[in-house]
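Researcher: Quick sanity check before group meeting.
Model: Go ahead. Protein one:
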Amino acid sequence: MDDEVVQRVFHEGGREYFQQQPSTTSSSSSILQSLPLHVSFDRGYYLLVKSIQELREKKNGLVTVGIGGPSGSGKTSLAEKVASVIGCTVISMENYRDGVDEGNDLDSIDFDALVRNLEDLTKGKDTLIPMFDFQQKRRIGTKAIKSASSGVVIVDGTYALHARLRSLLDIRVAVVGGVHFSLLSKVQYDIGDSCSLDYLIDSIFPLFRKHIEPDLHHAQIRINNSFVSSFREAIYKLKCRSEFHMLYLAFSFIEMYLRPPSASEEARINDWIKVRQSGIRYYLSLGDQRIVDKNFIIRPKAEFEVGRMTLGGLLAWGYSVVVSYKRASTSIINGNLSVSLETIDTLGETFMVLRGTDRKTVGAESLKMGINGQWITKSYLELILERKGVPRLNTPPPLSNTSVTSTQEKVIAAPRPIRTTPNSVTRLEDLSQPWTRSPTKSKMEPVLATWHFIASEPPLADNAVIDFSHEATTGSSTYRDTMKLAPMPDSYDLDRGLLLSVQAIQALLENKGLPVIVGIGGPSGSGKTSLAHKMANIVGCEVVSLESYFKSELVKDFKYDDFSSLDLSLLSKNIGDIRNCRRTKVPIFDLETGSRSGFKELEVSEDCGVIIFEGVYALHPEIRKSLDLWIAVVGGVHSHLISRVQRDKSRVGCFMSQNEIMMTVFPMFQQHIEPHLVHAHLKIRNDFDPVLSPESSLFVLKSNKHVAYQDILKILDPSKFCSSVQNFIDIYLRLPGIPTNGQLTESDCIRVRICEGRFALLIREPIREGNFIIQPKVDFDISISTVAGLLNLGYQAVAYIEASAFIYQDGKILIEVDHLQDAPSPYLQIKGVNKEAVAAAGSTLKLDGSYTTKSYLQIVLERLPAVERSSSGIHSQQAARLQELVEFIQSQGSSSSSDSSQSREASPIEGVIEDMQTRIKRLERWHTINTVLWTFLMSALVGYSLYHRKRQ
């Protein structure tokens, strides 16, 4: 971030410690120069981390960050995720309460103490921050914060951007959305258009517009958090009655359910609002969002805190408390697993509940504990309603059918948003209403949609080349064949789509019985595979990738996105066997060798009555007619690549529409995939950003220190150990004309990795913090026609790196030893999702002090003479081989996009590919021999040691 942008970061009250005139000659771009009015949660997280890093390099002393916003918007979640990467101190403003009334009340916050603490830290002094206990409703002590360990301090709270604090903050972040927007949309849906949005906000969030919203307009980074609740990281519960009674009560909650004013007396608990009171805190969830599968209760993890006045506002609008009970709980926690005893006063019973984030672990623990009691899958609410019935509907207070009068409008008029300078935020005045209070939809669908079945015509005889209906020999007019799911009328985000997908499977099992066959289709990188495996984790079923049905001869021609590359006859047989509950063998395809390596048996049973097929062509007419549920997924890296191309093109003064880019980069999608997606029962738009999101972070430590093979084995679990060998080529594509400082940098390039015959994409460089590289968990596969499309759009191949990798892993830690071509020594990478586990592995291997965060492109460039490090490429010795790769990609890409299956002449690059495959085989043989010899040597040593002990 250059000085000019740093100065702008501090506008309107920020700490200004740069006194020199801003530089106007620098051409380097900054992450905040084109910051839009508001960004997604994932994008905001990335911007905040990069802003902290760049600001930390520009100044001496403490970097202070304020994250403000309404209750339930996601402030605390953002602060925790940034702290997990940066390793900073988070100060919660809730610990500065000096009263027990409404948490959003400005008078209940001890600003004087918070200002003193921040001033001490900015001056390099240690300080004591207060600690507040919400169960005891009082301060219980203090906590020491050392200035030396607090290079970055984040203040998290509703009033974190208040005028008393803004002069002490370097970076100001506003977060809106979450349950705040969702609750507004829910209430609007329940009560209709009987009042204005402003009046509704003042009723449910009475302090927001007066005391909170005006401060949010001072933020430099503005986040609209659409995330509400998610089953991506669900909690799995097993519950049964218990004969044990608690000796003491560790926690006590009051849980209540609010029925909408327009509800009938039927027990539609999905439309009710749940409020949980814990001490002086209130947590809210919209509807009974849970999934029941066999004995498991599966719930989303997220909880959202609201103020006490919000509950009063809902009651004033006619919501009524229909059920209320006290839940006393005591728990024993072991890692990600907990065992709780919970007593419900209304039922007079105690229940034992096992909770965990992994379904198999929870199930295994129940067997280990020897619990033989009957599992209960009903919620406490359902048990209470069964015993006492649904409370009768009282007459709600009357609601005005007329709009609010003009005098009322004047009384509750919103304060005028503070206008920022034009170079900070563009087109702010074009918005019809402030960004801080706009619900995501003016008309919100019910919290949980309901699946319906419709009658269809009996299946006709199929005269197509591939007959998928031959399995229906038991009668074409059966209920199963004539009843179909009615498509959902709208599209949904990934979180709601995951919930609806599982509910559709359950509806099919209940109404049509076994088996249920699901198809998930969409473009490459849209999130199909991720969604399929998350559904399988919840339902407990099998996932089959259509890539398993590739024909070897077409895969060798890189025709992955060609429908003719699938072995449709085998796919037809497998689906027919599954339909008739017969055991079948599905193929296993080895992408490394480009051929089928074997088969896997699949059988439909009560334990596994669902099979999910996922792939680009899963919704093709020849396939989907034999499936029960059709799911389309769009977005993900597919849309991010289009945005990246648009950004690059605009930087060189060329503007292209999304449709023009789509036709060039994804020709097969537009012609042969997209037309099938419109017929899906469920359409999911994947707005989740796997490149930026902290949810997909992979922590990496890289070192060029030599480590012996036996030392690597010591830190991996031998029972789960596996290894492999890969060769890969990284090609860097850059658009000519993008401003640079004369050097080739990774941030200006799109990296395409060729590995095992696949093409994977990296469109944004990772975050580097300390010794760690934080990058996405997975690469995103694309077709060769997409790479050819990028070349046709003007991207030029400016560098390539060839390497071989030895990979060792045990499911928690992955260790990769990369041998770069022409590099004097290999590089070792330790990868994992747990930062502490990766750091511990590095310390065990004694790598401390040898880490580097440089990319392989940087490493190769630094080894070259200075005259050969220009932005136009690496050096002339690679030019010939790089040109061969480009010509090969363009020839194959053009033939794929035109559906040409004609034979082609041998290209020089084919020799390179064949040479790579030969080297892979040679490395594999070497690795196998090495493993056998090492195992023999260790066995001999162990045997000799045991023999020596026995003699002694």
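Researcher: Fine. The other one?
Model: Protein two, sequence then structure:
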Amino acid sequence: MRKKTGKVIFSVSSFFLLCLVIFFSMEMAMAQNKSSTIPINVGVVLDMDELLGKMGLSCISMALSDFYNSDHGSKYKTRVVLHTRDSKRDVVGAAAAALDLLKNVEVEAIIATSPSLSSFRNPYFVRATQNDSSQVETISSIIQSFGWRQVVPIYIDNQFGEGIIPFLADALEKINARIPYRSVISEFVTDDQIKSELLKLMNMQTRVFVVHMPNSLGSRLFMAAKELDMMSEDFVWIITDAMTNQLNSIDYSVVESMQGVIGVKPYVPRNKKAENFTTRWKLKFRQENPTIINAELDVYGLWAYDSATALAMAVEKSKTSGASFRKQKISGNTTDLEAFGVSKDGPKLLKAILNTTSKGLSGDFQIVDGQLQSPAYQIINVIGTGAKGIGFWTRKNGLVKKLNSRSRYSISKENFGSIIWPGDTNSVPKGWVPTNGKKLKIGVPVKDGFTEFVKVTRDFTTNRTTVTGYCIAVFDAVMEALPYYVPYEYVPFAAPDGKSAGSYNDLVYQVFLGNFDVVVGDTTIVSNRSQFVDFTLPYTESGVTMMVPIKDDNRDNAWVFLKPLTWELWLTSFCSFVFIGFVIWLLEHRVNEDFRGPPWHQVGMMFWFSFSTMVFAQKERIVSNLARFVLIIWFLVVLILTSSYTASLTSMLTVEKLQPTVTDVKELVKNKEYVGYQPGSFVVGLLRKMNFDEDRLKAYNTPDECVELLSKGSANGGIAAVFDEIPYVKLFLANYCSKFTTIGPTYKTDGFGFAFPIGSPLVPDVSRAVLNVTEGEKMVQIERAWFGESTCSDSSTSLSSNSLGLDSFWGLFIIALVAAILALLIFLGKFIHEHWHIIRQSNLSFHERTRILARKFDGKDYSSHTFKKSELRDALGDSAHDMDCSRSPHGNLSMLPSPRKTGPPSPSNSSQTEQSYHFPGEEGASPLREENVAVSAQESVTELVVDINAGH
């Protein structure tokens, strides 16, 4: 196996993995001997020329010796016999050694190191160390706690180095951090090539690096970084457990170059058993390897010890017999792999290993999902000659200062101890630098009109370009508000002739192409542009609105009096007047002489009375309570309607210049009117979505050109309306508010913003600075300096027609309608009740009954108090006259008619004094006499006079 593979033995995070690879396709090669113990052959393939290989082999040998010499292990019937092979730092050599062990030794299991072998690929591969992917969550939590947004991984170019990258990328994506660049270093790289790669990293803005490589290459990397002054302020270095676990074995000169580095490693609790073993191991290792100085035992050795112990326990537990292999019967040509035998003890040994748990030197040893259970991770800080623990990470609690904490899951940086960062500083690095000494190239648009926003002036004598304007002033103020200095220069987006080199979309796309570092100007934040760049927060009011000319001909319009109400309201009001007039006539016709007479007289009275209520000029008296009830409600409606009409008409006549020529976008589309827009703006796309014809769109470059087009009008070669963003419209109306106004609705956009490359670390800081500037007095000063003081009233309020619509009054009409219908129902119910005997006549046809009821309705209701009072007054007047003529000096009343008893008149009197009218079918009914009531009233008065005189 190649050198880097040999290093992987017993690794957790750096892919130095100790894998118990159990091959159950083998049979026992050695026959069971006659001794009391059963030897079980196990192969070991390691890189014997590396420190990790030597350490692993010594720990495995000591583990088996300690186990079988213990009280518990000495009773076992099985004994693991090791057969070692050297991988010779090559994968091919490792594979050849494994084949040799399988074919010639017929081992039951092989202990090897490989980052690619796992139980996910084959259940017979058991990982006795940590998967390197388990440490990426610890690394991502550190990055998230300090708010770093970009990370560059630096890793070795082999299977070990590449194995962690997919897991790291996924973990960073979950915390909204990204990898802008991957630094891949060959395992055969020279020192000059390492420096060349580091110089490339120095030219980037990102300053957070995650290093994943073995000690031998990592030491060279940090020595080169120290020489290039990359171990100074603003740099962040995080190392994986591939280097952190072996910090004690690194030379002092290398550790000195790593000051301020943050590292992660599996946490191994301290115990006396592990300390005693470490002392014994050092003594034995020095005796076996006298040329290796200052060798230190690390977690890989502890895992090797625990793995060998677990294997010995599993062999005994599975009752492996050590029987010889069973050869497969294969005919024809076969390969060496197909010729291998099969062991019957394989499944039992696999099950025993998966169920084995023990208290090892490294902590609890337990296989979960085919690999060693993930422990807590310790976070260290390289300081001085060693490392200091600054915190822990667990799946349950996240970042904590102490283990066994009952706190909730947290990623707060407050859970770290004191950290010394590169450059011997306590200040947390930003994780990026703005420009590395280079000036940012700020792209600005070139335009002819609305130069108050951006104005590019070129001095052909000196060939110098000056950029000014509102947007430029805001950007300068924002950059001054940053907590650090960022040099930059403005570069116009212009063609060789000085004209604009393209649209605003083209300008923003230059940032994506890398031609500009930032775009500053009147650049609107829209969705299609955000696919290529990251925008800061907006610094202007957002939205697109429509601007139209103002009509000023209301005062000269002969029909202006019709405009206060919409035609729907006019029609509803007219119908309501007619309906209320009809209801009042219906309620008053039988009891009020003012509502009687010839048909045309009654029709005229109906219209006259209803419309006279509009100005409360009605003269007719109302005698019915139901009619009075209806009129009370109707007077309220009329009062509100007339008051609103008067107010609206007054507004139209006195503020007539606020009336727009167009009030609706649909009207423009329907009438195929011409509309205007600024060239190069995204507004033209918005107009297409609003179904405007392409040939009905006209571009304008300057405010003066816009005024000319609007003044001409759509019918005369101009335009009927302008669609533009609110900042442009406000600037335009500041000078032309007496001629133009805005009309709703406002189409939503996000205003002007500064465009940066996607993922730029400047965006959050610039956005915060934008808020500081826009919320302060500085923004007011900038607006006043470039836009001046407007003498016009606020024209941004969207205007629409001042006509009053039905939607404002339908509630009143509903109330009046309900009152009128209720009165009609009461009236009709009473009328039908009084004439129910007519309706019940079965010998009459429907037509005859209807005619009789119509004549009944057309007649007077003599039972009404109004007719009773009038006839009583007439009777009193006639009786008084008769009494004066017939009174004698003695008060003799013999000349008065005798009192008349109540009851129907006699037929003789009836025939002489009255003429009877009978309707068909009214047999037995009293005849209808028009003078009947008057006669009865006169007789009643006569009786009253007699009674009064009799009292004297």
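Researcher: One line on it for the slide.
Model: DSSP finds 30 helices and 29 strands in the chain.
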